[in-house]
Design brief:
Blueprint: E1 32-33, E2 40-48, H1 53-61, E3 66-71, E4 78-84, H2 89-97, E5 104-111, E6 114-115, H3 118-126
Antiparallel strand pairs: 1-6, 2-4, 2-5, 3-4
Length: 131
């Protein structure tokens, strides 16, 4: 389900009337802080020696706290999604373990402060948070 571009209720008698004949209220995107569920997420951009990309990706994927690893095109070779319960845990996962995987040349970490997803949007509507 896509997001509506409408910013307010529809005018009486206009398109968009609900089953009761009253205008439907637009649904806003659900925006939640990344820590709502007790999890802090980071996206880690990783440069790796070309000959070691498959092995490095596999080793990184096996690190506790790493949720996903993608082989990508562009300026970096891998992108990892890391999730931890405390900011301090990023040091253990990224600095102490991920950076020490053989073949890893450089990392650039981006900590998420909000999550936007279609899944969150649908869950909000299921809970009656649409108005």
């Amino acid at each position: 389900m896509g997001l509506s571009a409408a910013c307010g209720p529809a005018a009486p008698g206009s398109a968009g009337a609900g089953p009761t004949g009253r205008p439907e209220q637009p649904r806003a995107a659900v925006v939640r802080p990344a820590r709502v569920t007790g999890v802090i997420s980071a996206i880690v951009l990783i440069k790796v020696e070309v000959a070691r990309i498959p092995e490095a990706a596999q080793q990184i994927a096996e690190i506790n706290g790493v949720r996903e690893v993608y082989s990508v095109t562009g300026d970096v070779d891998l992108v990892a999604v890391v999730q931890v319960s405390r900011h301090e845990d990023f040091h253990d996962v990224i600095a102490d373990r991920l950076n020490k995987v053989p073949g890893v040349l450089e990392t650039n970490t981006h900590i998420a402060f909000r999550t936007y997803s279609e899944e969150d949007l649908e869950a909000g509507f299921d809970l009656g948070l649409d108005g």
